[in-house]
Design goal:
Blueprint: H1 10-23, E1 28-34, H2 35-44, H3 46-49, E2 54-61, H4 63-66, H5 69-79, E3 84-88, H6 102-107, E4 111-114, H7 118-127, E5 132-139, H8 144-157, E6 162-169, H9 171-180, E7 188-192, H10 193-199, H11 204-211, E8 214-218, H12 222-238, E9 242-245, H13 257-266, E10 267-274, E11 278-287, H14 296-299, H15 315-319, H16 351-357, H17 360-367
Parallel strand pairs: 1-2, 1-7, 3-4, 3-5, 5-6, 7-8, 8-9
Antiparallel strand pairs: 6-11, 10-11
């Protein structure tokens, strides 16, 4: 386990942790939304260094993890076509569908390629006019501007063999779904800094007021996270409700307005199904009708899709903060990164992947 003592700002972090210990007087359950924050927390052992009264639970802020199974199965069907070059970020290639993943499609001869930008996929379409090039456009608000821009660029260049399979989700509606759930345990949120860098945090005050919870926007370094936790604990102990920005070096209230304009030009809000959670109203984006010609779901006749989720996987509970990876009976045994039962074990932002990568499964085996 690599603890925060190895981090360059270790003294500062430990000072903040000490202040948390002196501040907290009762138990509090806090949720970090972002999977990147989850990995930083587990990597540096921040959750284990906090006083016992402060519990961190992990939220649904991993876009790969919440991509609905139906859409992954559609991706597999499209990628299997001989006339298609299917492109995606590398995270998606090993995410299991109902019975296989994109790596297995590539092993069977499918033309599946990893790209680092959707604009790379547009270039591929230009270079391969005899093929249909599809980009798997997943992500939260962070990746939406680039994905939307790729559609605008394809139209401007007259590229007609490019389309996107859209699986965009929005963070605030997921927070609403968690807070309104009957079994909710979350009393305060660490909001994702990169999402807020794009969208600002103007959507959070109504959430904080409605559910009477504090929300703190923070970054990804151990010091960012520790300071975010301290601010949440201070607000909770004082009975303060509202939103604080602890990531001022990257986030403003309004956010990146040009990026928001690009999103609004190409995408519109819609109901979105979240893997392991279910449908959350108006929690996603889809292409606007005027861009339907670039919609891969409309371009390809996929027929009826039958999905099958592993009954052993409890990823849905983990994504809602109702359980942790070590609560899963198959974590680290039947379910591993080499043989994943769910997306949370293979995504670089998945909570199960973080617990496995940084040795939490070894601790469980030692306790058994």
């Amino acid at each position: 386990m690599k603890y925060v003592t190895e981090y360059r700002d270790a003294k500062l972090v430990h000072g903040v942790l000490e202040e948390i210990r002196h501040t907290v007087t009762r138990p509090w359950t806090l949720m970090e939304i972002c999977g990147g924050q989850t990995h930083a927390i587990v990597r540096h052992g921040i959750d284990q260094l906090l006083p016992s009264q402060v519990e961190l639970v992990h939220g649904p802020g991993c876009p790969v993890c919440v991509t609905p199974l139906e859409l992954i199965d559609k991706a597999l069907a499209i990628a299997s076509r001989p006339d298609v070059i299917f492109t995606s970020y590398g995270d998606m290639l090993r995410v299991p569908g109902s019975g296989r993943h994109l790596f297995s499609v590539r092993a069977m001869g499918g033309d599946v390629r990893v790209v680092y930008s959707p604009l790379d996929a547009v270039k591929l379409a230009q270079q391969n006019p005899d093929k249909q090039v599809v980009f798997f456009a997943i992500g939260f608000e962070t990746t939406a501007p680039a994905n939307a821009m790729s559609v605008l660029q394809a139209r401007a260049l007259g590229v007609q063999n490019y389309s996107v399979l859209v699986s965009h989700a929005c963070v605030p509606p997921a927070m609403h779904a968690i807070l309104s759930a009957p079994l909710n345990r979350v009393q305060g949120f660490l909001a994702a800094g990169h999402v807020s860098a794009v969208m600002g945090y103007w959507e959070y005050p109504p959430l904080a007021e409605k559910y009477q919870v504090p929300i703190v926007v923070t970054g990804f370094e151990p010091l960012d996270i520790a300071q975010g936790v301290l601010t949440l604990v201070q607000m909770l102990e004082q009975g303060r409700v509202g939103v604080e920005n602890a990531y001022v070096r990257a986030v403003t209230f309004q956010g990146n307005l040009p990026a928001q304009q690009v999103i609004g030009q190409v995408l519109e809000l819609c109901d979105r199904k979240w893997r392991g959670i279910g449908t959350i109203p108006m929690s996603g984006w889809r292409l606007r009708p005027e861009f339907r010609e670039y919609d891969a779901e409309a371009r390809f006749d996929l027929g009826e899709i039958h999905t099958h989720e592993s009954p052993s996987c409890i990823a849905g509970k983990i994504l809602q903060g109702l359980a942790k990876p070590h609560d899963c009976p198959v974590f680290g045994t039947t379910c591993t990164p080499e043989r994943p039962l769910g997306a949370t074990m293979v995504s670089s932002e998945g909570a199960c992947a973080a617990y496995y990568k940084y040795g939490r499964h070894h601790a469980l085996l030692e306790q058994a």
